[in-house]
Backbone:
């Protein structure tokens, strides 16, 4: 059992490691150097503008620490990922997604009774408000599931307006709001699938988290979905592997939007929208689309690799590369193994897996990828498992969102409890026209 740990993102959790000197306009300024619990160091420039009138410029935030966080640790060079200090490999092998969600949101692994209570809370909050079904009835069949998901999650604030923000809600209210989100996101996802295939909605049951999702997705009034442990385990594992990844695009969005003190549902909705893009969570859909393209057009894999390396071609090898990992993404390694297990158990083969493996093999020995340290990321193999389970390609990013939800919530909570608390508001360097007079339209 992990020890109860400090969950707040506070300056108090940093070690002081001397000072950094900066010379500007002939004057010297000193700024504190701070260190986190894994030895990561930063120059704390909180007072830079106040002290000398300068700001820093860091497009894409490649060197900017936007917060202090005790949730997830990544060492991109070494390929390490830990939630609350626990290696991702141990969680993926031994924990359930619900347990992992509790760990992220509450900061510690749950005791037996705590886990039972959390499970019951999720089950009790798994149905969506019956009136929300009218939304589904009005949607076009071919609506993208991410558009449905983000709209429905935002509309939870219409049906459950009582939880407004971290500070206006007591702990019990917040726990219910979090349970609602973690539980209902799965129901919304399954209902959007049923809508797309024109089948009646299947209401949640009191199965475990992943079994319940599969039941809502694939049971019909005439046939109950046959649950099997290999698929349930694989799904648990995929959700665990996606559950948090520190300050990526969607998580930073949740924090930034949440820092205006808007409600939890609206903040999460913003994160879902950010995740949708193909450079982020949408990559899992793009990977399968690329593999399909290679297969259906008989494109030689070597030629495809040349295409993604060509700087005159905007195409990239989707599912490869990462802003933080300069090594094999530890999540991709686990997913690749599980791919084999699931296909083996279901006695299926997937030609796309063969193409993916060939792409990986060639890329890992190609100077372009070696020099840039580009390796498979979490999205490279996940789609093969989703396909084998029967989840349609346009729902892959929805699966990512279901997994990432506990992380977003944990980060939102931590952001609200951080000290000091500030609304997120970056600066810019202006390069537009200098002052000029308005010219009336008759004179233009
Ligand atoms: N295929 C081909 N070239 C690539 C790729 C790729 N997948 N990724 C990066 N590069 C090249 C890029 O062209 C650049 O080359 P050069 O230095 O010659 O200009 C160099 O590698 C560095 O790339 P970058 O775009 O500056 O790196 P970044 O850290 O800004 O981008 C990334 C990270 C994930 C957006 C990028 O690697 C990418 O577009 N990958 C494909 C999309 C993808 O799989 N996204 C999912 C990420 S993991 C899930 C998640 O958390 O979102």
Residues:
């Amino acid at each position: 059992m992990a020890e109860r740990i400090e969950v707040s993102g506070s300056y108090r959790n940093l070690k002081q490691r001397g000072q950094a000197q900066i010379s500007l306009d002939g004057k010297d300024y000193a700024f504190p150097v701070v260190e986190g619990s894994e030895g990561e160091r930063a120059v704390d420039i909180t007072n830079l503008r106040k002290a000398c009138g300068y700001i820093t410029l860091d497009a894409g935030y490649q060197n900017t620490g936007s917060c202090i966080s005790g949730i997830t640790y990544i060492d991109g060079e070494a390929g390490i990922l830990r939630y609350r200090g626990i290696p991702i490999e141990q969680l993926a092998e031994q924990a359930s997604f619900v347990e992992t969600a509790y760990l992220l949101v509450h900061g510690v692994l749950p005791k037996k009774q705590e886990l039972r209570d959390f499970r019951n809370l999720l089950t009790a909050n798994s149905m969506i408000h019956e009136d929300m079904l009218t939304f589904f009835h009005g949607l076009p069949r071919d609506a993208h599931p991410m558009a449905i998901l983000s709209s429905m999650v935002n509309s939870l604030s219409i049906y459950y307006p009582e939880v407004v923000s971290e500070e206006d809600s007591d702990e019990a209210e917040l726990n219910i709001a979090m349970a609602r989100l973690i539980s209902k996101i799965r129901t919304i996802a399954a209902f959007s699938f049923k809508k797309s295939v024109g089948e009646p909605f299947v209401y949640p049951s009191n199965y475990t988290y992943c079994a319940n999702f599969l039941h809502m997705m694939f049971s019909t009034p005439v046939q109950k979905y046959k649950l099997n442990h290999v698929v349930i385990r694989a799904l648990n594992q995929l959700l665990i592997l996606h559950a948090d990844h520190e300050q990526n695009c969607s998580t930073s969005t949740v924090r930034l939007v949440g820092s205006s003190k808007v409600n939890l549902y609206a903040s999460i909705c913003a994160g879902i929208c950010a995740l949708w893009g193909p450079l982020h969570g949408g990559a899992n859909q793009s990977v399968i689309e690329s593999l399909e393209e290679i297969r259906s057009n008989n494109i030689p894999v070597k030629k495809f690799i040349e295409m993604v390396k060509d700087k005159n071609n905007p195409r990239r090898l989707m599912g490869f590369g990462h802003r933080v990992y300069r090594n094999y993404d530890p999540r991709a390694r686990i997913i690749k193994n599980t791919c084999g297990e699931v296909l083996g158990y279901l006695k299926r083969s997937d030609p796309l897996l063969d193409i993916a493996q060939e792409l990986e093999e060639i890329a890992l020995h190609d100077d372009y990828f070696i020099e840039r340290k580009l390796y498979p990321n979490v999205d490279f193999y996940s789609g093969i498992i989703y396909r084998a389970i029967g989840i349609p390609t346009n729902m892959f990013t929805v699966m990512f969102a279901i997994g990432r939800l506990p992380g977003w919530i944990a980060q939102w909570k931590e952001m609200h409890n951080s000290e000091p608390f500030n609304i997120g508001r970056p600066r810019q360097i202006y390069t537009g026209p200098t002052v000029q007079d308005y010219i009336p339209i008759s004179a233009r």
Q: What stands out?
A: The longest strand covers residues 15-24. Residues 1-6 have pLDDT under 50 and may be disordered. The chain has 18 helices and six strands. The pocket of carboxymethyl coenzyme *A is lined by residues 245, 248, 279-281, 283, 308, 316-323, 372, 374, 377-379 (CB under 6 Å).
